[in-house]
Amino acid sequence: MAGTAQAAPAPRSTASHSTALQPTASHSAALQPTALQPTAPWQTTSPPTAPTARAAPELRLPAPTGPHRVGVTTLHLVDRSRTDPWPDAAGGPRELVASVFYPARDVGGHPVAPQLPPGAAAVYGGVAPVFTPGLPTAGVDWAATRTHAHTDAPARAVRAPVVLYSPGAGDPRGLGTSLAEELASRGYVVVAVDHAGETSAVEFPDGRVRPIALTGDPRTDRATYRTMVETRLADTRFVVDQVEALAAGGNPNADGRPLPEGLARAVDVRRIGAYGQGMGGTTAAEALLEDRRLDAAINLEGYLDHLPERPGEPGELLPVARDGVDRPLLLVGTDGFRDARHERAWSALLAHGTGCVRWHQLHDASHWVLTDFAALAPQLQEAGLMTQADRNRLVGAMAPTRSVPLVRGLVVSFLDRHLRR
Question: What's the Cα-to-Cα distance from 88 to each of 48, 91, 249, 398, rounded to whole Å?
């Protein structure tokens, strides 16, 4: 059946392979057979399982390696031209929260931010094993992990390319912190977006926490999957609008909170890219086709089709795969999730032969190696909270000392090539 993982031969090594015609693929986090259950188990009033008496490990994110210190601020964005599609919004306007990572001029007196804010972290701890197979159900303080980004630090007075980040389905934007910080340390402004209603939990600046509100299973419910794609694309267009408003001297914060000093002058809207993981990769690729303001995009293992009408039939290709794209697009897959759906849609995209699309395959790696779990999963295993098998299923066997710089290098080199002009 389309969408079920199937094995395919692949060389086993800690190396990676890149080609414009590589016919191998991966599996999207939103549609893992073990990731979501048809009964929507994330919709529960029960509190997260209490941690055991064993002390929670202190999980550490890898430090960015670029020459600049990193600042971060939170944006609360409200699109009053749209009605939020998810049932808990009760017909209200579309609200989003985004983190903006940027090169900082001075970080003195500005504390480092948490990877996840406390309210969102509390909800994530209860639902994380549903979305991310193999994660522990207890024993982790998800609010304790600190980033290397300093809250509201003044920005460097240099125009920087802008890159939008969209996370995988169910994942909070904070799980893409390491890569966002790396880009910011190398002179990019990164806008990481939480797609409220389908993210595990979104914490707004006023303290409100909005948990996931999906009622259908996006593995099998065609309407839910389609709504997710359409909503994310509209979110992306709106965020680009807000970045343009910021560059023009406006303050996109719906609550009027002041922005970090110099942030507006640091944004160069003549150079905009997008990247995302899982469903976020789907979003980035399709947004590249639909929004001419985007110059390049990276799809980190996202599907490029819709669910089929009937089991065993191919699904409708997304326009980017059906029609091709005339601007640079990088597809990154892992051998841990080799999937016939990816094979068909990614190959269809490459078959257009425009020369704009590259396919890079990572070996000894799996889907969440493209997130912060590349570094965190091995630490959870060392703490006795994850088995070797679960760690391999999550991120693969590649050591983080290799996987983290490899993924960072792929993303940075691609964006440098196409946005540094």
Answer: 21, 8, 34, 40
Q: Output the pLDDT for position 9.
A: 31
Q: Is pLDDT of 44 > 90?
A: no
Residue ranges covered by each domain of the chain: 16-31+58-419
User: Nearest Cα to 213, choosing from 126, 108, 88?
Assistant: 88
* Of 339, 338, 319, the residue nearest 329 (C-alpha): 319
Phi and psi, residue 388, nearest 5°: -60, -40
- CA 202/CA 210 separation, integer angstroms: 5
From the DSSP assignment, how many helices (H) and strands (E) are in the chain? 9, 13
Angle ∠(362,287,100) on CA atoms, nearest 5: 80
Place of tokens 């392979």: 17
CA distances from 4 to 29, 314, 342, 395 (A): 12, 12, 10, 19
Please, which residues bridge with residue 358 across strands? 330
Supply the DSSP string of 26-45, one letter for each residue: ---GGG-TTT--TT-TT---
DSSP state of 69: E
Q: Provide the residue type at 85 as one letter.
A: P
pLDDT in tens, 60-107: 999 999 999 999 999 999 999 999 999 999 899 999 999 999 999 999
Q: What are phi and psi of 81, to 5 degrees?
A: -85, -10
The CATH class for the domain spanning 16-31+58-419 reads: alpha beta
Task: For residue 145, give the nearest of 167, 127, 172 by alpha carbon.
Answer: 172
Phi, psi of 287 (to 5 degrees): -65, -35
DSSP 187: T
The number of residues making up the chain comes to: 421
Distance CA 191, CA 98 (A): 6
